[in-house]
Write a structure and sequence with these properties.
Layout (H helix, E strand, L loop, with lengths): L1 H20 L10 H17 L3 H6 E4 L3 E7 L2 E2 L8 E4 L5 E7 L3 E11 L5 E12 L2 H6 L4 H17 L4 H6 L1 H16 L4 E12 L2 H43 L1 H15 L5 H12 L17 H4 L7
Antiparallel strand pairs: 1-4, 2-3, 2-5, 6-7, 7-8
Helix pairs in contact: 5-7, 8-9
């Protein structure tokens, strides 16, 4: 007795699953007496009203469409019809066309609290298609709408476990994770998720200003380091040049001539007139320094030796 009760309970539990999977072998035998009477009357009406009824019986679906036919509320055997011509009985048959092309929709911006407690607004685009027309009609009321709602919740659940840095840098990984999750969840609905793309991650204005200030401070720090490294290299080069000049007095004279050449970029009398204008100009208070080699005065500064 207990075993029989357990088998009955198990059969009741598996009954909804069998209804979802729909085994078409015994569909014709489940119409009952009324169903068969209506079917026979419908066929008689079609024959009586020929050829007018042929226009109502012949239907066409495109290459990218399939037609799911129901007769007296029950799914017809053979699965979805199409592409091309198929026949229906107007009085007892109803059908629904299903588009198999890739469809897309935008996930509205979702306010998400990241793992590091930052509020961001993220939106995405989902591309999907119907992989099984029969299941998409029998197992879910509106496959596209259900997929859209599921995409919103999936986007929140996945991004809620990510930090702000991961959201900004690992968009491709987030898209793949979201695609796999949606594809697994929508498989019983006959939906195949082809691609998911995260469009934009909008940050609060205050956070944008803080990040901009941080980036500017980092750039200034790098600039100071570069300037310091340049000064260090320049000081080393000056030290080496000073050592070379100290070893050769003639090199010091050549350096002196190069300095005069760089100062006197304008030659001739115009250079002298320019110097005079600088000296007697009342508007410009400038000091002109002329380098003069002390070595030339060394001969004059030498004192004669004291006579004994």
């Amino acid at each position: 007795m207990n075993k029989s009760r357990e088998t009955r309970v198990a059969s009741k539990k598996t009954e909804p699953r069998n209804r979802l999977n729909i085994v078409p072998a015994n569909i014709q035998n489940e119409f009952g007496v009324c169903g068969w009477i209506l079917t026979i009357l419908s066929y008689l009406l079609i024959f009586v009203t020929l050829p007018i009824s042929a226009c109502m019986c012949i239907k066409v679906v495109q290459e990218y469409e399939r037609a799911v036919i129901f007769r007296l509320g029950r799914l017809m055997p053979g699965g979805a019809k199409g592409p091309g011509i198929f026949f229906i009985v107007p009085c007892i048959d109803t059908y629904r066309k299903v588009d198999l092309r890739v469809l897309s929709f935008e996930v509205p911006p979702q306010e998400i609290l990241s793992k590091d407690s930052v509020t961001v607004a993220v939106d995405a685009v989902v591309y999907f298609r119907i992989s099984n027309a029969t299941i998409s009609v029998t197992n879910v009321e509106d496959a596209a709408r259900s997929t859209k709602l599921l995409a919103q919740t999936t986007l929140r659940n996945i991004l809620g476990t990510k930090t702000l840095a991961e959201m900004l840098s690992d968009r491709e990984a987030i898209s793949h994770q979201m695609q796999n999750t949606l594809d697994e969840a929508t498989e019983p609905w006959g939906v195949k998720v082809e691609r998911v793309e995260v469009k934009d991650v909008r940050l609060p204005v205050q956070l944008q200003r803080a990040m901009a200030a941080e980036a500017e401070a980092a750039r200034e720090a790098r600039a100071k380091v570069i300037v310091a490294e340049g000064e260090q290299k320049a000081s080393r080069a000056l030290k080496e040049a000073a050592e070379v000049i100290a070893e050769s007095p003639s090199a010091l004279q050549l350096r002196y001539l190069q300095t005069l050449n760089s100062i006197s970029d304008i030659k001739g009398t115009y250079f002298v007139q320019k110097i005079i204008n600088y000296i007697y100009s009342a508007e410009k208070n400038s000091t002109i320094i002329f380098p003069f080699p002390i070595d030339l005065l060394s001969t004059f500064l030498q004192r004669p030796a004291a006579k004994v």
